[in-house]
Amino acid sequence: MLFAGLAVLYFGVTVGGLKQASPGMSMMGLAIARTDGRPMDFLTAIVHLVIFWIANALLTPLVLLVGLFTDRGRLLHDLLIGTVTVRHDVY
Asked: Of 28, 36, 40, 76, which residue is the least packed, with the fewest Cβ within 10 Å?
């Protein structure tokens, strides 16, 4: 439980923060953006992570194949909450 709680807090603070990216994402020049143009907030970042975990647990990692057939390589959790991973220079 402690690991899950810390992971949720970490993701919410980093992805829901000003850079809209974790430190690793920032180093690679990536960020998560909402398709409606609003900035990621703490709650949306947490929902993004939780839906990702649930989709992978229930649908097996094969759910990641969705990214091969969607626009911009968006995965199931991205489609459900309206997010996309972008490069910093584009964002």
From this structure: 36
